[in-house]
């Protein structure tokens, strides 16, 4: 966990950052996304990440990777290709499968973590949207549920909401570093490798709940 | 936060979770399952479901709608090690999850550039959009061109079950006006072409002399280029694994076994057999040397030759040097070619006639240049031994697949639920538009030479000018030869549609990719062990399709709707309707044999229906009736006899590549050639832990990869000469291409030979480079794409020479399945 574990982030800020990460890993970036990321920091979409202390190096790495890919249109194609290779199965052995089951136990998808997450979603009364028919232990499902739990806990102050959020953070902290390593191993663009490293660093921070 | 930045892009919009639609059911299992995973998690209640696969009958354990584990059926005598792969197939990271379209194709359709195929730039689309694109292109080509522009020769082992997607594909295209399809296969095209001329049938099909009679009567079993233990792990349908009992009994009986093979195979080790390390591709020469010994020493069965064969005189002349080549095929002559000492050849011939001998061959010897010759030579040798039709004697060309030596039960045969039907003649198909069917292994020739003529099995045809292909349940970027040539030729297709379960190399080189469900995600029916008909299995759906995959029948039905032929295609029948029809037909057939089968619902509930073996079938001997009375039970050949000389083949005039009797013809490349640029023969046997390329995309691969790559067997001396150590990454290369592999240094392979299993997934480093290296070890990058001869036009994959060197520098990163190892 390292030095990051000593840091904490307020729940609303944490939620914004997590929501952005979910979107980064939820679908390939479109041209407008690429251009939005490349805007100056204060008006760019990465702002929720920038304002968290200690993440600037990873944010800069993401932006630099994007710039290195060339004009936005070219970057969009390169990122799409990387997304397909890493997260959609095209890469085969060179994938970074975005599922918790890929990093726990046998490494097969849809194993115990998927069952646990299905139960948690049921308990929270949530389900995936129709255009995202993914396994319940997909990175983005876990992030999205964490995002919701953070916002709910910050508003309600309910201990069970906060416990849900804490549980999800710890859960992801357990496997996202391995996922990030896979991204670093196989991402030729560097963008998703940096984004995954950023996410791992973010998840190492605890939640600072409103008093 | 800038409103511009958060509203102008998808990063600001996308949501992945929503409040469950049925909060009132909170706490009630099933009803509350989240929608996305609901389809995957709601199929089964907790428990086990009996089903089947190419690797055996198994129980799938379902937990919370997930296929949590598999265990073999308790009556499987020797479950295959790769059965867990069934689970991997469903939950592979390589699974195709959504309909995808190559970006360039999505933008420009069939006019899109094709150079970027394989680069992985796909865009997810809806099912509706994907099927619209496919339907539009089929209609365009059927209307503007004709059926000759569409190639549906889709070939491959698909997933197990009778709901054959390749038949569905044919049916759909036939209803649309037709398409170019293919004949035969990559497994045994040589045997399939030659044996009807020799025996009047494809010997490698149907029941063989039972294992029991071999155990009881054979004194010597010669396994010629075959490894039954290795191959019987899998089946074209569902394996029973009954041949393992045979191997155990052979071993217990301490039967003398000889293995003629450049590799000391698993069966040889299991049976403690005698290994004769024959030089690859010299099998015909050895057979001729054996025949010559029997002839010159007057040891052959003259009565059998006289009563049961035709054309021996011409063959005998050829053996004795009175043929067109003027060369006598002595043991010494054979020794020079095979590198087996002449005395050993003579000794083997003597042993073959000293007692009862069963000669068992595999198919690799016919998957080579002039591959028609060896099966013919084998039958001729067996004829001279004179034991065909006797218990434990003669020959078999199929002891290595589907337990064909197990006794046949009283069970019915099982039909097909989907008929391809006949072409609806919406357009005339003029001769100049080319053949309606091509030999399957000649697909690249067809792409390279539209309008040009080719010869096949006595006929002359034209290659059609195809523009689109639709591939389902197969991986041509595995099973076809000379990958780099193929990649170039594949660009001829304006549209490539692949419907499959995983991102195979073929899927990555497609334009439109459709995600199909695995057998675990749909209902089906199949016979366990198709030849002996051991049991009928209700292949029940274990879980619902994951992600956005759909069953093949569902996909084709939806596509047929788009094409306006929905009713004609489905006939209003569901998948289960068709399964039930197959069962009812089998039941009626069984009733005719006074075998009672339960009503369908009871069968479906029961899960598996085993059949009894009539006592007489246990001692079945192939060709016994022919032997008993060759006039009444004549073979369906022109003479009614075994044709050692074939007049129909003589009439074809294939003197150079398929003469009218078994003949030694030097292959295009082999160890005996003068040119030593590529001094090692490449053996591309069937893999131990896969079904061709199936399971290559799963964790099963961890059982055999070396340095994350396909294992490359190399002899100790060859390795030493090249400074190669066990576990090294090696580059295997020739003039056609190059692959990386992991070295396995061993004395269980003959010097001068290396082995790379077929079926390793093609993994090009740079798709824009015509000679790019395959980082994983697809042997078909190296193999030549030539026909066996004009007779079969089969694959010649076993004709291949290459060089091997230790890979220097940093190998391209293919750290196969290392992600789980990094897990905390």
Automatic annotation (TrEMBL), chain A:
SUPFAM superfamilies: TorD-like (SSF89155)
InterPro entries: DMSO/NO3_reduct_chaperone, TorD-like_sf, TorD/DmsD_chaperones
Chaperone found in the keyword field: yes
Keyword Cell membrane: no
This protein's UniProt keywords: Chaperone
UniProt-recorded name of the protein: Tat proofreading chaperone TorD
Protein species of origin: Consotaella salsifontis
TrEMBL record, chain B:
InterPro entries found in the cross-reference section: Asp_de-COase-like_dom_sf, BisC, CT_DMSOR/BSOR/TMAOR, Molybdopterin_N, MoPterin_dinucl-bd_dom, Mopterin_OxRdtase, Mopterin_OxRdtase_prok_CS, Prok_Mopterin_Oxidored
GO biological process: anaerobic respiration
Keywords in alphabetical order: Metal-binding, Molybdenum, Oxidoreductase, Periplasm, Signal
EC class (word): oxidoreductase
Native source species: Consotaella salsifontis
UniProt-annotated binding residues for Mo-bis(molybdopterin guanine dinucleotide): 157, 367, 475, 479, 522, 552, 780
Protein name: trimethylamine-N-oxide reductase
Cofactor binding annotation: Binds 1 molybdenum-bis(molybdopterin guanine dinucleotide) (Mo-bis-MGD) cofactor per subunit.
Domain of life: Bacteria
Family matches, as Pfam families: Molybdopterin (PF00384), Molybdopterin_N (PF18364), Molydop_binding (PF01568)
Gene3D superfamilies reported for this sequence: 2.40.40.20, 3.40.50.740, Dimethylsulfoxide Reductase, domain 2 (3.40.228.10), Dimethylsulfoxide Reductase, domain 3 (3.90.55.10)
The UniProt record lists the keyword Iron-sulfur: no
One GO location term (cellular component): outer membrane-bounded periplasmic space
């Amino acid at each position: 966990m390292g030095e990051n574990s000593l840091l904490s982030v307020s729940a609303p800020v944490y939620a914004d950052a997590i929501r952005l990460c979910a979107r980064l890993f939820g679908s390939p970036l479109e041209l407008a996304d690429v251009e939005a990321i490349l805007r100056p920091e204060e008006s760019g979409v990465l702002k929720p990440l920038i304002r968290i202390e200690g993440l600037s190096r990873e944010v800069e790495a993401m932006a630099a990777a994007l710039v290195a890919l060339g004009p936005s249109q070219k970057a969009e194609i390169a990122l799409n290709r990387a997304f397909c290779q890493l997260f959609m199965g095209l890469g085969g052995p060179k994938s970074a499968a975005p599922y918790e089951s890929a990093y726990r136990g046998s490494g097969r998808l849809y194993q115990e973590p998927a069952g646990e997450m299905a139960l948690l979603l049921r308990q929270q009364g949530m389900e995936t949207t129709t255009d995202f028919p993914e396994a319940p232990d997909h990175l983005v499902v876990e992030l999205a549920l964490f995002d919701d739990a953070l916002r709910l806990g910050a508003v309600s102050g309910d201990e069970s909401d906060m416990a849900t959020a804490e549980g999800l953070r710890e859960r992801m902290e357990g496997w996202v570093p391995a996922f990030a390593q896979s991204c670093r191993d196989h991402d030729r663009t560097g963008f998703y490798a940096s984004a995954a490293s950023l996410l791992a660093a973010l998840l190492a921070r605890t939640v600072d709940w409103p008093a | 936060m800038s409103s511009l930045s958060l509203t102008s892009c998808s990063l600001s919009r996308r949501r992945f979770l929503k409040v469950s639609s049925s909060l009132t059911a909170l706490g009630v299992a099933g009803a509350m399952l989240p929608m996305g995973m609901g389809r995957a998690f709601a199929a089964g209640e907790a428990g086990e479901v009996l089903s089947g696969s190419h690797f055996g009958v198994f129980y799938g354990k379902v937990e919370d709608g997930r296929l949590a584990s598999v265990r073999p059926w308790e009556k499987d005598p020797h479950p295959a090690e790769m059965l867990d792969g069934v689970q991997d197939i469903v939950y592979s990271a390589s699974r195709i999850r959504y309909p995808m379209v190559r970006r360039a194709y999505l933008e420009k359709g069939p006019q899109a550039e094709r150079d970027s195929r394989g680069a992985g730039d796909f865009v997810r689309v809806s099912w509706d959009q994907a099927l619209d694109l496919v339907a539009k292109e089929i209609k365009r080509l059927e209307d503007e061109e004709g059926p000759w522009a569409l190639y549906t020769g889709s070939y491959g082992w698909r997933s197990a079950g009778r709901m054959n997607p390749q038949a569905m594909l044919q049916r759909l295209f036939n209803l649309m006006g037709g398409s170019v399809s293919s004949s035969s296969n990559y497994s045994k095209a040589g045997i399939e072409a030659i044996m009807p001329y020799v025996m009047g049938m494809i010997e490698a099909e149907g029941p063989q002399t039972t294992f029991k009679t071999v155990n009881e009567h054979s004194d010597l079993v010669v396994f010629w280029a075959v490894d039954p233990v290795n191959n019987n792990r899998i089946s074209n349908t569902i394996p029973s694994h009954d041949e393992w009992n045979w191997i155990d009994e052979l071993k217990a009986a301490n039967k003398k076994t000889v293995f003629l093979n450049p590799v000391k195979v698993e069966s040889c080790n299991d049976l403690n057999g005698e290994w004769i390390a024959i030089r690859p591709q010299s099998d015909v020469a050895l057979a001729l040397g054996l025949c010559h010994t029997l002839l010159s020493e007057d040891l052959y069965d003259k009565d059998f030759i006289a009563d049961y064969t035709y054309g021996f005189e011409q063959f005998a002349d050829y053996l004795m040097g009175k043929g067109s080549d003027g060369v006598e095929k002595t043991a010494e002559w054979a020794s020079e070619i095979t590198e087996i000492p002449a005395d050993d050849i003579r000794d083997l011939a003597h042993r073959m006639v000293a007692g009862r001998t069963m000669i068992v061959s595999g198919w690799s010897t016919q998957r080579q240049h002039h591959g028609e010759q060896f099966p013919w030579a084998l039958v001729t040798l067996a004829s001279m031994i004179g034991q065909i039709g006797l218990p434990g004697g003669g020959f078999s060309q199929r002891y290595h697949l589907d337990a064909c030596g197990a006794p046949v039960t009283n069970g019915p045969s099982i039909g097909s639920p989907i008929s391809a039907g006949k072409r609806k003649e919406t357009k005339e198909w003029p001769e100049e538009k080319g053949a309606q069917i091509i030999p399957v292994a000649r697909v690249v020739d067809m792409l390279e030479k539209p309008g040009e003529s080719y010869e096949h099995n006595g006929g002359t045809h034209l290659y059609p000018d195809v523009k689109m292909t639709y591939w389902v349940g197969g991986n041509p970027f595995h099973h076809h030869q000379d990958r780099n040539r193929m990649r170039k030729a594949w660009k001829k297709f304006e549209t490539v549609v692949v419907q499959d379960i995983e991102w195979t190399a073929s899927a990555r080189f497609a334009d439109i990719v459709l995600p199909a469900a695995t057998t675990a995600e749909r209902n089906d029916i199949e016979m366990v062990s198709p030849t002996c008909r051991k049991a009928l299995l209700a292949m029940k759906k274990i879980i619902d399709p994951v992600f956005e995959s759909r069953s093949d029948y569902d996909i084709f039905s939806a596509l047929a709707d788009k094409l306006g032929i929905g009713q004609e295609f489905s006939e209003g029948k569901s998948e289960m309707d068709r399964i039930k029809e197959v069962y009812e037909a089998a039941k009626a057939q069984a009733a005719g044999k006074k075998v009672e089968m339960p009503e369908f619902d009871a069968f479906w509930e029961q899960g598996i229906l085993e059949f009894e073996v009539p006592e007489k079938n246990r001692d079945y001997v192939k060709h016994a009736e022919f032997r008993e009375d060759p006039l009444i039970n004549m073979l369906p050949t022109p003479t009614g006899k075994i044709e050692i000389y074939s007049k129909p083949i003589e009439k074809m005039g294939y003197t150079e590549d398929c003469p009218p009797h078994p003949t030694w013809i030097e292959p295009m490349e082999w160890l005996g050639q003068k040119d030593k640029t590529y001094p090692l023969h490449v053996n591309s046997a069937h893999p131990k832990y896969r079904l061709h390329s199936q399971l290559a995309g799963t964790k099963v691969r961890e059982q055999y990869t070396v340095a994350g790559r396909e294992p490359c067997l190399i002899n100790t001396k060859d390795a030493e000469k090249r400074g190669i150590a066990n576990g090294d990454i090696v580059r295997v290369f020739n003039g056609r291409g190059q692959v990386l592999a992991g070295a396995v240094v061993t004395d269980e392979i003959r010097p001068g030979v290396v082995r790379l299993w077929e079926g390793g997934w093609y993994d090009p480093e740079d798709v824009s480079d015509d000679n790019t290296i395959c980082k994983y070890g697809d042997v078909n990058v190296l193999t030549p794409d030539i026909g066996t001869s004009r007779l079969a036009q089969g694959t010649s994959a076993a004709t291949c020479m290459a060089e091997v060197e230790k890979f220097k520098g940093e190998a391209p990163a293919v750290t196969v399945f290392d992600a789980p190892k990094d897990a905390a």
